[in-house]
Design goal:
It is a single chain. By secondary structure, the chain is of the alpha+beta class. Helix content is 29%, strand content 33%. Strands 6-7-8-3-9-10 form a six-stranded mixed β-sheet, with helices on both faces. Strands 13-17-14-15-16 form a five-stranded antiparallel β-sheet. Strands 2-1-4-5 form a four-stranded antiparallel β-sheet, covered by helices on one side.
């Protein structure tokens, strides 16, 4: 089931939530809507579901115009962050509920619920109530209930936001496997870049009601369109072009540009050469396999470097130690253009 959104606009009073949104989603893909709070992600999702009526624009599901169609006419499955399960119904009854509302025969309902319990790996828990389940199990039940009607499109609004980090990680992997099995066209709203990059075929980066860039996780990370996308897809250091010159052996960018580079693109050496510049080690933060190192440049600028633990141990870095830096690559942005620069120093 394809999704096509054309020139969608939605206002809440004076607030422009969606600003001329155009988006195409191919059949069977899992697409993440990624961006900060207030960027329009959930509003776009709710408009596709029929829960919000746009002020202008069109929404098509498989070439059919559903812009003004009722929710039940769109045949979409919607999963909220807080499960929205019926507390007084068992797992089996929760999953069966939309099928019973649609007046399917009892035999079909029983068979379909059994299939879904098997799909979400909760076969033995059908007679439990939501209060007897973990948060991750409850969200699986919510997903099964959304899939019960065999929706044309599955819409997930930050489904893992209320769960702790370990459970979220497990459910991400489970959702990706589930999608590969059922192949339902899926949109998931998230503000978690790792979640988006881990599970999505394509990512739609949104900001202030607009789409900044659409692409695969790799293409967005390697070739961001602007500083916002680069910063949202991972940590960056930002320096004016006149300050970056000492780190790039005098190869300056135009003066109107900011130069961005990722922490893992910094090389740290213990001995100087003609291609390095000095810095002083500040805070060192251990993150397991990664180690974050704060570095002070001679002009007072502070930047962050990321090393793997093996490289960190090999260097033996300590606070206030003098070291020497070079950069593997940088990205420069201006209002008029975008430039990707390989820097060898």
């Amino acid at each position: 089931m394809t999704i096509q959104v054309n020139h969608l606009v939605k206002r809440f009073g004076n607030f422009l939530a969606l600003d001329d949104i155009n988006l195409s989603v191919e059949t069977g893909t899992l697409v993440a809507l990624l961006g900060p709070s207030g960027s329009g992600k959930s509003t776009l999702l709710r408009a596709i579901a029929g829960l919000e009526q746009p002020d202008s624009g069109e929404i098509y599901l498989e070439n059919g115009d559903v812009t003004h169609a009722k929710v039940q006419e769109r045949r979409v499955g919607f999963v909220f962050q807080h499960y929205a399960l019926f507390k007084h119904l068992t797992v089996r009854q929760n999953i069966a509920f939309p099928l019973q509302i649609a007046r399917h025969p009892r035999g079909y309902v029983r068979q379909r619920v059994g299939e879904l319990l098997d799909l979400i790996k909760l076969e033995g828990l059908g007679d439990r109530y939501p209060a007897q389940l973990s948060g991750g199990q409850r969200q699986r039940v919510a997903l099964a209930r959304a899939l019960a009607i065999e929706p044309r499109v599955l819409l997930l609004d930050e489904p893992f936001g209320a769960l702790d980090a370990n459970v979220r990680q497990d459910l991400r992997l489970w959702l990706r496997r589930l999608h590969d099995e059922v192949h339902v066209t899926t949109l998931i709203v998230t503000h978690d870049r790792e979640e988006a990059m881990e599970i999505a075929d394509r990512i739609v980066v949104m900001n202030e009601g607009r789409i900044e860039q659409v692409g695969s996780p790799q293409s967005l990370y390697d070739e961001p369109k602007n500083p916002f996308v680069m910063g949202f897809l991972g940590p960056v250091n930002v320096l004016p072009s006149d300050r970056i010159a000492p780190l790039t052996n005098g190869n300056r960018s135009p003066s109107n540009q900011q130069v961005l580079f990722r922490p893992h693109d910094i090389r740290i050496s213990l001995e100087p050469d003609e291609k390095t510049r000095p810095a002083v080690v500040g805070r060192v933060i251990y993150m397991g396999w990664d180690v974050q190192v704060e570095l002070s440049l001679a002009d007072g600028s502070i930047i962050q470097a990321t090393l793997n633990s093996d490289d960190f141990r090999s260097l033996g870095l300590t606070r206030q130690q003098k070291v020497y830096l070079s950069l593997k690559q940088t990205k420069t942005f201006s209002e008029a253009n975008y430039k990707y620069s390989q820097v060898h120093v």
